[in-house]
Amino acid sequence: MNSGEWYYSTDHGQLCQVIEAQTLWGDSTCRIWLPGRDSVVRIPATRLEPLERAGTASADNIVYVAAAARVADALTQDVLLAPIESSVIPLPHQIRALSRAIANDRVRYLLADEVGMGKTIEAGLILRELKLRGMVKRTLVIAPKGLVSQWVSEMRFHFGETFQLVLPEDIKTLKRIAPATGYDNAKNGNYGSEVLPANAWQIFSQVVVPMDSVKPLDKIRGWTAAQVNEHNRERFEDLISAG
């Protein structure tokens, strides 16, 4: 056994990494690191099994266990996770903004830095932090029309987050392909379930839209009041009810 090699500890039921191996009077012992506990212990070498025999030889499995240990340890110490997991190196003022934004249980924070100070990065850090902590599942970004593509690309490049760009002209198409809420229950014989109209905003969990995609209108030339109401429902009321 060599330092740095990975084995399976039968005593602890998890993967471990050998830090040091010693043999004294014919008995071999190893000092190992347990990523699941983030602790170092010494056990007999006979209690370690090769990964192939333990059925945990996958490199993805090793990476997963190590990453999970880092996240679990960071959460107990109130460490910020997003700067570790993202590809961007945050500036000090961006770290302060992230720390202040997640200081409370309910995150309500206004980013009002000057132009060029990296507000998009700050928002991405906050989003990533909340997702890593299991506090966010669905995200909506409303941006000026000229910046929506930038939001999509920066979230993907810096944080590995995929956002769907939804333009005003896309909403009717999405509505046609969106399933009606409760339709599957009714189809399976549960006729007591209420079938609600299709909601285009429930198709994607992360969306970037320009303001024109969601803002309600008072009137549109040539449209009846009923048409205006339907327009507003598709763009605003459905968005709110999508959750």
Briefly say what this structure is.
The chain has nine helices and eight strands. With 243 residues, the protein is an alpha/beta fold.
Layout of helices and strands:
Elements: E1 6-9, E2 14-24, E3 27-34, E4 39-44, E5 48-49, H1 51-54, H2 59-76, H3 82-85, H4 92-101, H5 119-132, E6 139-143, H6 148-159, E7 164-165, H7 171-177, H8 183-187, E8 206-210, H9 225-242
Parallel strand pairs: 6-8, 7-8
Antiparallel strand pairs: 1-2, 1-5, 2-3, 3-4
Q: What does this molecule look like?
A:
The protein folds into 3 domains: 5-50; 78-134, no CATH class; 137-181 and 197-242, no CATH class. It has 243 residues and is α/β, with parallel strands linked by helices. The protein has helices at residues 51-54, 59-76, 82-85, 92-101, 119-132, 148-159, 171-177, 183-187, 225-242, and strands at residues 6-9, 14-24, 27-34, 39-44, 48-49, 139-143, 164-165, 206-210. The strands form 2 sheets. It has a 5-stranded antiparallel sheet with strand order 4-3-2-1-5. Strands 6-8-7 form a 3-stranded parallel sheet, covered by helices on one side.
